[in-house]
Each structure stands twice: as C-alpha cells, then as structure tokens.
Write a structure and sequence with these properties.
It is a single chain. The chain has helices at about 1-25, 30-35, 65-80, 100-110, 140-150, 160-165, 175-180, 185-205, 215-220, 235-245, 245-275, 285-290, 325, 350-360, 380, and strands at about 40-45, 85-90, 115-120, 130-135, 210-215, 225-235, 305-315, 330-335, 340-345, 365-370, 375. It has about 375 residues and is of the alpha/beta class. It has a six-stranded mixed sheet with strand order 2-1-3-6-4-5, with helices on both faces. It has a five-stranded antiparallel sheet with strand order 8-9-7-10-11. Strand 10 (about 365-370) and strand 11 (about 375) form a beta hairpin. The longest helix is centred in the C-terminal third of the chain and has 30 residues, at about 245-275. The protein is globular and about 60 Å long. The structure holds zinc ion. Zinc ion (ZN) binds next to loops. It catalyses: Hydrolyzes the link between N-acetylmuramoyl residues and L-amino acid residues in certain cell-wall glycopeptides. This is N-acetylmuramoyl-L-alanine amidase.
Amino acid sequence: MIRYIILISRFNFLLIGALFLFLIGWPQNTVAQNDNSGRFKTVVIDAGHGGRDPGAVGKDVKEKDIVLAVALKVGEYLKRELPEVKVVYTRTTDVFVPLDERAEVANKAKADLFVSIHANAISNPRIYGAETFVLGLHRSEENLEVAKKENSVIVLEEDYTTKYEGFDPNSPESYIIFELMQNVYLDQSISAASIIQEQFETRVGRRNRGVKQAGFLVLRKTSMPGVLVELGFLSNRSEERFMASEEGQVYLASAIFRSIRDYKNRYEARNNLHMAQGEPTNVEENMEEMTPETTEDFQPEEVIEFRIQVASSARRLSEKEGPYLQFDDVWNYQDGQLYKYTTGVSASYEQISDLLMEVRKIIPDSFIIAFKDGERVPVSSVRD
Ligand SMILES: [Zn+2]
C-alpha cells in the first residue's frame, strides 16, 4: 500500500514536471552545451613574467623576453595551422600581469588547455634541459625550488597577501595547500605535459628532465588542464644561446605547437569515442584522419646541431676535471668505448665557426662535429 502511494506521487511529480517544461520550453543551454562538447576550442598561451618582472636572468637575455617570443610564435603557428582553435594570450607585449589575472583570462575564455611558458635558472651552470610541470605537491626539493621561484613574482603585486590568502611563496609551509588539493585535471595535464616533453626530446634535441609536479599558483587558479613549461636553463651558456637564437625559438615553439595539436586530436578522438556509444571507433585511426599532412610542412623536420669537441677519454670524467674546468657548458656523448666532450651548441655552422676560434685559444686542436636528430653525422652532410 505504501509503495502504491509513492508510485502515485512520483507520477504526479512527473506530470507537473512535464507541464512545467511545456510552459517554459526545454532548457536551451542543455542543448547548446551538448552541441559544443567534444571539441577543443580554445587554448591560452601564457608568456611568464613581463614588465618590471624580468623572471630568470641569463648573461645576455631575460626570461620575460625569451618566453614572450616563443609564446607569440606558438600562437602564430596555431592560428595558421588550426584556424578553428581560438588562441588567447595573457600578454603580447612587455607588461606586468599578476598571476591571478592570468588565471582569470583563462577561466573567462573557458579554455580547454592552459600553457604557461617559462625558462629556468639555477646556481649550477652545468645543469641544463627542459621540463614540464603540472599542478601537484612537489616530490623533491628541486621541484619546490622551481615553484618558489615562479610563485615569488606575486610579491611584486600590490596586496598579494590578501589576494593569495596569506600564501608566502618562500615558505615551504605555504605549500601544504597543494597536498590537500584535488586536481581533477591531473590526468589530462600530465598527458599534455608528456607530449611536450617528448617533442622537446625527440624533435628539438633537448635533454628531457621529465614531467614533474609542484605547487604553482598560476595553475592552481585555472580551472582547466594546464602545464607550466620550463624551456631550459638561462644559467647554462649553451642553452641560453639556443633559447636566445631565432632557430632555437622556432624549434621550441614548433614543438609546443605540435604538442597542442596532438593533445587536441587525442582530446577530440576520445570525446568522439564517448559520443558514438556502442559503435567501436579506433582512436588511432581518428587521429590519423585529423592530422593533415600539410601542417608538418613549415616545421623543421630534422634537428641539426653543431658542437665543438674539446676532449675524449676512455673513462667518464667527473665534473671536477678536464674540460669541465675549462668551459662552463660541457656536454658529453658516448662513441663506442670513448666518452667525448663538447662545448657550445648551435644550429648554425657559421655561429659555431665563430665560437671555434675562441675555443681554439684554449684547446688548439678542438674541432666541429655535427648531430642530426641526436645522431652523430659528418659535418659536410648537414653544412649549408
Ligand atoms: Zn618563470
């Protein structure tokens, strides 16, 4: 009997509901949302720092200038190759933008992905390589240091203690909030970060320092998948030169562009899969179709690097001997049984030749070697 009454009252409720919908019409926004879902529409490109905040400072260049140049190139490639994607910048000139405003720009744009571009610096000039961060609690002191450095820009903002609820960028205790936080976009952010790191390593010949987690305020305040890219170390001479060069910036920007394109394809393929219920779709196949051949045309297909060889040794040298004492940027590779040591790196033969004259003042029999996509090749085969 009780059960019967409940059934009746449910029936009444449904009737009233149907009548109500009939009178006010079907909610429009539900339809509109379904219509748009599944497509990657907007990306925010965030060039770190700017204006009175130079970011990391190298010998010749500042982080704010390098990251702006790379960010603008990424946007340019996106607009040219993927005109259906809306590109939103947090800055396009040398201006100071507070962290919370950057996040607000992304949230207002309802972006599908937030890409913050930075460059690193550290006291040890021998450390180099690219790394990409997602929001989380740091697993090492090293990661905490990067987050501290990037977050400390808020002290240049007026009223930062109120705006960031008393967050002190330099106090490790402040970072406890990142432990309690739930990052609902973690998987997608890691996926984007991994694509970027893979591109940097395989297509730009960067040393891959990996995908890492740390507490970045700018990522915390954005409500979408997001990554913070550290292009390289301005404290390492050869990496500074690479990032300061036009070639270096083109390579880095194309890698980030391709990563966003791949992320978009995966995102859409996955959503199509969900929408086409019961109808098995091959994600890989979809991605093939959605990747037009022509988008590859303008990008450097192969990465050429010239370096200057200054020493070779049958055993691995420590960082306290030989070439490490003579040069501040030493890179080594293994060739059969030998460890070979180089200094300097450039995509231009002309540039490396200029450097060779300087290096020969210290090591008279040093010479130029060449790498194509990370493989040693004869200099003559890649010299323009
Ligand atoms: Zn930075």
